Amino acid sequence: MKSATTSRWGAHPPPPVDETPDDERLGSLIGDIYDAALDHSLWPQVLHAAIDYVGGCGAGLFSKDPTAQRGDLHYSIGIEGNYQKSYFDEYIMLDPATTAHFFAEIEAPMAVADMMPYAEFLETRFYREWVRPQGLVDFLSAVLDRSATSVAMFGIFRHERNGVADAEAYRRMRLIVPHIRRAVLIGRMFDLKAAEAATFADTLDGLSAGMFLVDADGQIIHGNAAAHVMLGAGNVLRAAAGKLVACDAQAARQLRDVFSTAGQGDAALGTKGIALPLTAQDGERYVAHALPLTSGTRRRAGVAYTAAAALFVRKASVAGPSPHQVLGQAFKLTPTEVRVLLAIVETGGVPEVAAALGIADTTVKTHLGRVFEKTGATRQADLVKLVAGYTTPLAV
User: What's the helix, strand, coil split of the chain in %, to 5?
Assistant: First the structure.
């Protein structure tokens, strides 16, 4: 995904207040999200609509790699450019969410209060220097994808006038996040921009991932070069009477359901067909993502109007858990406790950690005491050995 940051509202001014009924707004937003999978220039428009639907003052699509203390901002609306820059230059490691997101369930909305006591958040240097000056009070986010070293995120910033995330904001996030995840995962495979229908198939033929255009019954309308190789091998997918069928019986049933549901429109597909696991007859593992093609600019991309969905298939990459997750799960540590533990090992004593994390000495001592209790360690040297034992094998 290309970097495309903006200042405040930048070149994309906020749309007028949308008074369309909620169901229509949700349907329109989901359609825009899927269009953005094929045309990345539409993401700012999607973020505007998401802000309006969920409630907030800004939104972003970004990724973080805390092991390298860096991140990438792909699209952002509503946060001024100088704050965007300072976050990734300086504040990314002061943000408590940077560690917490490694523990979050994929697609599950998470606000500040889900990561740590809100009163404790207000004491952090991150809040004092980066959050409060902007008038922000919360960030409702969700993990879209995760590897051993990085997380891909979508989130909505909440201003003082919005208040902290409430039950309605969580509900609305749950409705749109699966669709955003699908669009991002598919969009990573290629960058079509505003591909014309006449050249769409030629563009897809260059993908390393197999791509099948199918109707609601699973009838194959078009396949790119990689798709035909898969069908020829007959190892993970095959054609039966012209229909796309998975070799694995359970996956075959799931695919039939996905294709049928895709024909009912964008919103109907929901979480179905996102990272659908496929097991080949030789044991190789593949992953498939389904993109509905029944509306919006995607309708033109369907080559023939009978195409209900595009199915993208490629070999699954094996991604182990991050050292943060392994350590946290082994000793039932909270994200904040893991954060303090790693800082103690890397930085030194309590005063140094407090300064590095931007929290009070007493807060560090409280969390450190819990770390000692849960791990059974009695000295800082024990913690160093403990962390080394869990992280070194993963780093090789």
Answer: 45, 20, 35
Contacts 24+ apart (CB under 8 A), 34-37: 34/179, 34/182, 34/183, 34/266, 34/291, 34/292, 34/296, 34/298, 35/296, 35/297, 35/298, 36/183, 36/187, 37/182, 37/183, 37/184, 37/186, 37/187, 37/291, 37/298
Give the CA radius of gyration of the chain: 23
Alpha-carbon gap, residue 311 to 258, rounded angstroms = 10
Report whether pLDDT(196) > 60.
no
The Cα–Cα gap between 143 and 149 comes to 13
Give the C-alpha separation, 243 to 74, whole Å: 37
Tell me the domains of the chain and their CATH numbers.
Answer: 22-187 (3.30.450.80), 197-315 (3.30.450.20), 323-395 (1.10.10.10)
- Does 39 score more than 60 pLDDT? yes
Amino acid at 113: A
Range 11-29 average pLDDT: 64
Q: What are the φ and ψ backbone dihedral angles of 153, each rounded to 5 degrees?
A: -130, 155
The answer to whether the beta carbons of residues 195 and 293 sit under 8 Å apart is: no
What pairs with residue 311 in β-bridges? Answer: 212, 290
CB 256 within 8 A of CB 236: no
- Of all residues in the chain, what percent carry a pLDDT higher than 90? 27
Dihedral angle computed from the Cα positions of residues 135, 137, 142 and 145, in that order, rounded to the nearest 10 degrees = 50
| pLDDT band at residue 46 under the 50/70/90 scheme | very high
pLDDT in the model for residue 199: 45
Rounded Cα distance between 53 and 320, Å, is: 35
Residue of 281, 207, 201, 212 whose CA lies nearest to 244: 212
Res 260 pLDDT > 60: yes
- The pLDDT mean for the chain works out to 79
